[in-house]
Amino acid sequence: MAFLQKLYSWYDDFGRTLPWRGIDDPYRIWLSEIILQQTRIEQGRDYYLRFVEAFPTVTDLAAASEEQVLRLWQGLGYYSRARNLHAAAQYMATECGGVFPSSYEGILKLKGVGRYTAAAIASFAFRLPHPVIDGNVYRFVSRLYGIATPIATDAAYKEFESLLQKQIDRQRPDRFNAALMDFGSLQCKPQPDCMTCPFADECVALRSGRVDVLPVKSPKAKPKDRWFYYFDLRWREDGAEKTLMEQRDGKDIWRGLYQFPLMETDKELTDKQLQEASARYAQEKFQFSIFNFQFSPPFLHQLTHRTIHARFVRAELASAPAVFPEKDRCFTVEGIKKIPVSRLIDRYLQTL
Ligand code: SF4
Hints:
CATH architecture of the largest domain: Orthogonal Bundle
Strand content: 5-15%
Number of strands: 8
Largest sheet: 8 strands, mixed
Bound molecules: iron/sulfur cluster
């Protein structure tokens, strides 16, 4: 049986039903693809439905504030995706008359859209013959043809793209890509059941005993350690409990999200060092002498390139600090629930 027949026969039996499958609305397909970058389908599905409900069209998304978008994104991580999503929606609303670009090159111009995402949108929404190449597709194709080129390199992308260009179903590239992605994800898994695979008789990796070693991955850089000490200062004012928060800026992680005033150090502090450093920090930043700090247990937060070691320094104040930096803002405890914060801050808030 030919490649396509085998693939489609498997897809008819085992393909996934997803809210963004079988539609040709480029806006919704784009939303789903951006959400699913670095996110599992099970987790991404809820976020997709929430975004579609809150912002039914690209113009609605463009009209929202970045804070609203980040708030809806909260918990998904990789917040640059949300910022790019918002910027791209504004670009489409202002530069493209609210119309989604319909060529591969036009889609590729959108902020946050790389070759993989552009191929997915072009094929699913416009039936353009561009193969999608994600981690699942790399796994399946590298095993099937015994390709040992390290994936996630430009050379590998070009090699796999050229190979799949010869296989792609030019009438239904959308169906071809969906089947390929599902096959890599559900059948040719990291630990696959090769006995039930329709490609078992031609799979090079299976015949040569290399299923466990393909695809070849490039070595990963070790994540960098960072130590964050957040100051959760509380006081009562007008009958409500209040605290200070600042919005992260610069080029660092979590830009645009809110956090408690942060002291970052280049190594872990002992409790005694933390006590002294906290008193100094409060004095310098708020011109406030505080000695009754309480320290949370350590929170470990793993990001792709960073390992964050965080502790929260809590202090009850008699009144608001008389002096605090311009960018700090007072929030009630209820108000914090309405602003975007990182998953790390959210985890801490949940413990209170
Ligand atoms: S035989 Fe096994 S390794 Fe080869 S394509 Fe099928 S599931 Fe993947």
